[in-house]
């Protein structure tokens, strides 16, 4: 990653910013004067957003709203309604045009034409909302009158009286009780409460009272958080069946009105949807370009924009900016280097694990990326803990069923590949353990290929601790490497001392358990003493705490065994309880829900504990916290997107 200054004549600054935006490879930062420069030639942050640039802000906001309204659904209720004009560009059709190459005047003309479309779309959406609200009200009243007709046959409303239907959720029946008392006091007892049969989760009544109290009754109900719907009242409450028929017709008419409005919105989407989305992106680009100028440095004749760029993209940037623009490499100060943006550069199989690797914090620029290690060890941990081939197949089938929806749900799209790898790992470990839905596979003659984890508890515990020793040792070794990368000799010495201490403790423990020959005790103790002295010099008074913490980190990996054993036992319990029923159908009704619960709990616990082991026991040994993620100044239209994807953490000269 290089720190560069892009120097352009002030008269060409708008054109240069647009080219820089289209190139999309420079992470802009505020211009800073070189240390000791008091010449006063350049003033940091002297440029400001011009009135012309600020003029794009209003159109940008309403164009994004218009693109959302004219989304794939044609009614502002589809995926584009989430606020992303890009989704509207992908879903709405319409005439395409090279909007990225039109000038400001041409763009303004298109914005002006779309303003009339905005007014029509807003009017249609407003009519739709009003009609939908009326349809909901009419539907409630119709349903209520149908229940009254079925239960009572008529609605006894004397002349001059009004009726209001109230649906009271069971959880607020006390509020209705207070409202009933107030109603009787308000009407001096001249009221009636008619019970209407309803569902188990609500209580529906009809209130009958003198019509002159309608306003006060509605206000009183609203004060208690209740909604009252005025009911039609013929002479003497007659004509209830006719009222129901009339309301059904009204409901059908309102539904047809909504369908008509949706058709008009769909027509607008068909004709103007893509134009609205593309023009919105172009206007967003203009606003972003104007907003970049306040971070620049200016003099009487020049403008300087500073930023970080991948070293491999420097030549492409110079080509994109063209003649008359100078791109000057600058050696960053230590403070600037600490704030260098961080980006990942990994092969496609590792990229889904990058969000997990940076969840706690981005690694510092110039240090190691933990994503490749996490991509290997995290699925292994999940498979080791869940370890049931049947459960793995269940998860894999669910993921395949959700694959189509994953594209429209960002969180699911990010988690899908990680979960798929974890499911495959679970299947592999399930085959090694010989487990298919607990011990059900044993009934069919399936035997473990490696070990029976229910019987080999001690072996599983030793395996978990061995994994802890290996991963914590790797973390300490990587911590020494990162210390060398950032030039921190004390950190290098501390991490190497901790690593030697850990290895010495393991050797002494094995020798004490007669797993290694006794003669290693003396040299092992000597090495531990020397390494601990070195650790004292590096960590001083906290050295003993650090060493105890490392040993505790290793022992914490015993949770791999504990969760693995719990998952296996719950599977066996499910099969045992199902077998006690003595009937296949009843047994399945008992065992299947228990296995489903075990699947959910097993993968949840394995995910949480697997990530905890990485974040707390492993990453803390070598991951140095970074500053910000690499976010290049990139056009929303992406006119020249091909200049490169990302830069690795190591950067480069």
The profile of the biggest β sheet is: 6 strands, antiparallel
Derived from helix and strand composition plus strand pairing, the structural class reads alpha+beta
Could you give the distance between the termini?
7 Å
Q: Measured on Cα atoms, how large is the radius of gyration?
A: 35 Å
- Fraction of residues in helices? 55-70%
On the 0 to 100 scale, the average pLDDT is 82
Number of DSSP strands?
10
Give structural notes.
Among the domains are: 2-47 and 294-311 and 322-334, no CATH class; 155-237, 2-Layer Sandwich (Alpha-Beta Plaits); 351-621, no CATH class. It contains 22 helices and 10 strands. Strand 5 and strand 6 form a beta hairpin. Strands 1, 2, 3, 8, 9 and 10 form a 6-stranded antiparallel sheet that branches. Helix 18 packs antiparallel against helix 19. The protein is an alpha+beta fold.
Show the helix and strand layout.
Layout: E1 2-9, H1 13-23, E2 27-29, E3 43-44, H2 51-54, H3 57-69, H4 85-91, H5 104-152, E4 161-169, H6 173-186, E5 192-196, E6 202-210, H7 214-223, E7 228-231, H8 240-292, E8 297-298, E9 302-309, H9 314-321, E10 326-330, H10 334-338, H11 354-357, H12 371-386, H13 389-401, H14 403-406, H15 410-433, H16 440-443, H17 457-485, H18 489-512, H19 521-539, H20 543-556, H21 558-580, H22 584-618
Antiparallel strand pairs: 1-9, 1-10, 2-9, 3-8, 4-6, 4-7, 5-6, 8-9
Helix pairs in contact: 1-8, 1-9, 3-4, 3-5, 3-8, 4-8, 5-8, 6-7, 12-15, 12-21, 12-22, 13-15, 17-18, 17-20, 17-21, 18-19, 19-20, 20-22, 21-22
């Amino acid at each position: 990653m290089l720190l560069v200054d892009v120097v352009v004549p002030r008269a060409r600054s708008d054109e240069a910013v647009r080219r820089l935006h289209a190139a999309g490879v420079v992470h802009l930062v505020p211009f800073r004067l070189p240390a000791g420069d008091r010449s006063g030639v350049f003033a940091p942050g002297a440029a400001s957003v011009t009135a012309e640039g600020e003029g794009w802000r209003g159109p940008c906001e309403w164009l994004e709203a218009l693109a959302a309204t004219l989304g794939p659904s044609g009614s502002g209720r589809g995926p584009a309604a989430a606020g992303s004009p890009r989704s509207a560009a992908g879903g709405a059709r319409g005439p395409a045009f090279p909007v990225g190459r039109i000038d400001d005047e041409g763009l303004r003309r298109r914005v002006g034409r779309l303003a009339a479309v905005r007014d029509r779309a807003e009017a249609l959406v407003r009519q739709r909302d009003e009609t939908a609200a009326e349809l909901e009200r009419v539907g409630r009243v119709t349903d209520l009158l149908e229940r009254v007709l079925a239960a009572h046959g008529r609605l006894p409303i004397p002349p001059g009286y009004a009726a209001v239907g109230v649906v009271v959720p069971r959880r607020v029946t006390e509020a209705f009780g207070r409202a009933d008392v107030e109603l009787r006091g308000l009407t001096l007892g001249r009221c009636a409460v008619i019970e209407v049969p309803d569902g188990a989760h609500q209580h529906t009544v009809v209130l009958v009272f003198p019509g002159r109290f309608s306003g006060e009754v509605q206000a009183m109900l609203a004060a208690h958080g209740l909604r009252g719907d005025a009911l039609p009242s013929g002479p003497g409450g007659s004509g209830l069946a006719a009222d129901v028929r009339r309301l059904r017709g009204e409901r059908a008419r309102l539904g047809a009105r909504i369908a008509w409005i949706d058709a008009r919105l769909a027509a607008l989407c068909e004709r103007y949807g893509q134009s609205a989305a593309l023009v919105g992106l172009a206007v967003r680009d203009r606003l972003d370009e104007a907003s970049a100028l306040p971070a620049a440095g200016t003099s009487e004749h020049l403008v300087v924009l500073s930023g970080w760029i991948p070293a491999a993209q420097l030549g492409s940037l110079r080509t994109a900016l063209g003649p008359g623009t100078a791109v000057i490499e600058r050696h960053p100060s230590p403070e600037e280097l600490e704030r260098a943006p961080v980006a990942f550069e990994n092969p496609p199989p590792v990229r889904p694990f990058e969000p997990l690797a940076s969840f706690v914090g981005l690694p510092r620029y110039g240090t190691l990326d933990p994503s490749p290690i996490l991509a290997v060890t995290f699925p292994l941990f999940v498979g080791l803990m869940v370890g049931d081939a049947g459960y793995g197949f269940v998860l894999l089938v669910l993921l395949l069923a959700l694959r189509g929806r994953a594209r429209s749900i960002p969180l699911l799209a990010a988690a899908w590949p990680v979960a798929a790898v974890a499911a495959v790992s679970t299947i592999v470990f399930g085959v090694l353990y010989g487990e298919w839905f607990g011990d059900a596979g044993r009934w069919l003659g399936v035997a473990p290929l490696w070990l029976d984890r229910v019987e080999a508890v001690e072996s599983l515990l030793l395996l978990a601790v061995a994994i802890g020793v290996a991963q914590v040792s790797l973390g300490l070794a990587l911590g020494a490497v990162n210390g060398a990368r950032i030039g921190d000799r004390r950190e290098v010495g501390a991490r190497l001392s901790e690593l030697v201490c850990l290895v010495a403790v393991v050797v002494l423990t094995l020798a004490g358990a007669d797993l290694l020959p006794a003669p290693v005790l003396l040299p092992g103790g000597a090495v531990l003493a020397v390494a601990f002295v070195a650790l004292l010099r590096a960590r001083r008074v906290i050295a003993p705490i650090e060493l105890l913490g490392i040993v505790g980190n290793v022992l914490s990996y015993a949770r791999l065994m504990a969760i693995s054993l719990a998952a296996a036992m719950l599977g066996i319990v499910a099969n045992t309880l199902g077998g006690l029923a003595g009937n296949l159908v009843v047994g399945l009704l008992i065992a299947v829900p228990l296995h489903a619960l075990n699947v959910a709990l097993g993968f949840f616990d394995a995910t949480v504990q697997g990530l905890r082991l990485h974040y707390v026991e492993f990453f803390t040994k070598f991951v140095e916290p970074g500053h910000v993620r690499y976010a290049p100044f990139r056009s929303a239209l992406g006119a020249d997107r091909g200049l490169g994807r990302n830069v690795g953490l190591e950067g480069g000269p």
